[in-house]
Structures are given as C-alpha cells and as structure tokens.
Amino acid sequence: MATEENNAVVSDFISFLNASPTPFHARSESKKRLRSAGFEQLSEREVWNLEAGKKYFFTRNHSTIVAFAIGKKYVAGNGFYILGAHTDSPCLKLKPVSKVIKGGYLEVGVQTYGGGLWHTWFDRDLTVAGRVIIREEKEGSTSYSHRLVRIDEPIMRIPNLAIHLDRNVNDGFKANAQTQLLPILATSVKAELNKAVYENGSVESGKQSDGKKASDKADTINTKHHSLLLQLLASKLGCEPDNICDFELQACDTQPSIVAGAAKEFIFSGRLDNLCMSFCSLKALVDATSSHSSLEEEVGVRMVALFDHEECGSKSAQGAGSPVMLNALSRVTNSFSSNPKMLDKAIQRSFLVSADMAHALHPNYMDKQEDNHQPKLHGGLVIKHNANQCYATNAVTSFIFREIASKHNLPIQDFVVRNDMPCGSTIGPILASGMGIRTVDVGAPQLSMHSIREMCAAADVKYSYEHFKAFFQDFSQLDAKIAVDI
Questions:
Q1: Cα separation, 111 vs 105, whole angstroms
Q2: Cα(473)–Cα(471) distance, rounded to whole angstroms?
Q3: N vs C: which end of the chain shows fewer Cβ within 10 Å?
C-alpha cells in the first residue's frame, strides 16, 4: 500500500478518535459515516423490509451499532461474516448524585468503570462528555430529547499529593478510589460568586432570569449535582439548567489523539482499546461495500457489530451478552424466508472475528510474556489463543484468518498468556458460546492498555484495516474449500 494511502487511513482514524470521547459519541460518529456511505437506518421497533444488495444499520441505546450489507446472491440460510468490537473503555463515570463539597472545594463524585489504570488519571486536564435528557416545552406540550454533549475545555483535575506529604509514594502508589479519585471542579468561594452572577441573569446562554427561585425541578437536580456543572452543560446545550432532567456523563482527557514519536510511527491517544478495532472494522465494511460491484458475487451478509459494556462483562441490553446479535441474524434471515430452520443453518455457515486490542511486548517488562509469544508493534494483527477458552480461537478459525493474511501479504502474530498469569477476556467467547458461531479472537498490539493515554503503531492500524477488508472480500470463497463437520 502506498505511503499516501497509509497516511490517509491513520489520519481518518485520528479524526474518529477525536470525535469519540464516549461510546455515545463513537456510535454517533459511526452512524454519520455509515449514512454517508449509503447505509439505510433501521429501527428495532419496526418491521424490516430488506433487499439483497442493499446496506443497513440499526442502533441500540445510542451506544451499540450493528451495520450489514447483504450480498446480491444471498438467500436465507447463507452465512454472516461478522467483525465484532466494542465502543467502551475504562473511565470515570459521574455518580447519580455527583455533588461533593470538602475542605472548601467542589468535587465531582465518580464511579470507576472497567479495569482502568487509575493512577494515570491524576494530574490530567479533564472535562466531561456523554448524553443528557432535556425537557422541551413547546406550545403547551412537554417532550423529552436525548442530546450528546461535550465540554471542550478542561474543567476538572485530580491532583496528586505532594511527595513531602507522602515520602513512600514512589514505593508503590495505590489510590483509594472512593476518597482520593475525585476530580476538583472549583473552589466553594468561586462557585458562590458564579452562582450569584447566574441568578442575576448573566449566563453565557444570554437568557435572562427573573431573579425568582428556580423551579422545584431545578431544585431537585441542583441537590444532586453542582449548579456550576449544570450551568456549563446548559450553556453548551443551549438550554436552561432546570431543563436538564438526567444525564450519563464521564470524565474525559482533553488532550487530543495524535501521531507521535521521533519517527512519527506511533499513535498516542486514550481509548485505543477498543476504538482502534471499532474504527478498522467499520472502515473495512464501508470500503468493502463501496463500489457498485462490491456485492454482485457475494452470497453472504457482511456485518459489523460494535457493542457497549465489554469492559464490565457485556451483561446489558446493549452488550454482547444480550440477544442483539442473534436478533439481527434472525431478522435478516426471516426477511428472506419463513422457514424457522434457516437461522440454524445460517449460524453454522457464519464466522465471527472478535476484534479487541492485544498486549504488545513491553521492553521494560520483558518477563511478562513468554519467549515464543511476544506480539510486536508494526507486526500486524495478533491471533489470541487460550486453552481454557478465555479466547474463542481454534485451529480452524485461526487457519482461516491466517490464510487471508497470507494471500494479501499481511503480517500476523500469535499470543498466549503465560501459564503463571491470568488471561484477559473479550466478546469472542460470549458470542461463540451463546450462538454457536465459529470465532477467532484477534487484536492489534498496543502498550499502556487501560491507561488514560495509550499507544499503538500507526502501521498496525493500516494492517488491521486491510486484513478486515480482505476478510469481507475473501471469506466466502475460502470457506467453501474447508470441510470440518462431515
């Protein structure tokens, strides 16, 4: 691939990362890209009328998205070729009651989400982003809308304690997540001054107050969250603070994602796990179905599923542990046949690539990986193996994925965790066991996994995208040559 094209893929990825501070934003950005590529949005609440050769997508909870393109030669019972990834990353999420006042400071109560490297969140310039439920009054009727929000400037920080007050901190720093992991929003004095300005009607939104006490609804939410935070959100959303009914917000690093390193070979960013695999999967589907002839000879359904809540076990209505994937396969199959046996047939002809980032060899911790399984940056996708089925890869599924790499001259690596160390998990075993679908677990190598600021190689983004695109284009023909259950 030409260097210019490599740079285009990486540049596109950086744009995707910077547009996606939360799973809600990642889904929104994915939706925008799919629509631009000619995918038609479906609703799970409605009947689907699907056609061979067409492209579709649907969303659930504004944080999970499933997109698919139906081959021109597809018939009910044919397989689904799926790339599965997740949109969430470890982070700090605001509590339902986030207002905390201690020692003259306004702090924000947060919950730890997933298994983060929480010490990396100290001394970072933080903001908030997520979704907000807004009350709207129009012509005597009330309605409620779902809005995404992101405050761009840094508004919070979790400061470290001075070494003079903890001389042993460098012997092993471990923060108490309940008492020491609270971002500081403001001092109480400044907050009171700001409140007085707001009550006099001089807020950024330009909307004047009559000086009277706010409504009971405003009092309710103001008892749960700092008025200053609500004012910032309202100003960004163009509404009044008392029209904010509820929200799901998380703390976010304000430092943008960049291409970096002395040789410009790395990507420094938050949320590489797992927005890197989400982006590569989505771009592969879009580009593998972009031309008029892309689906002419395709007999199956090319699909991408980006789930929420992988970092906490996938057990939610929009996680990989829910029926969302099975429902999608069922509805597509049933759109072309009323025979209930066709779905079972389709699943046995299907294949899932579970794409989740992998641990690259760390030069300062060489003993953490065994000699024969040391994934390297710039080494291409990593096939993950585990005898105890923490990964769903087997000899057949790894062979298929490796053959695709061989055909396109793409690098490929293998990984197993040391026998004396615990193994991570992915959506692969959840979907493989829940649906009975053939699965391979793969991921691009990275360092600093689950840190607020991670790193990977720019070349591996290109390799991953190319490998996934080749999977969509080649799987039908390759699978026809493999005989296992006969």
A1: 19
A2: 6
A3: C
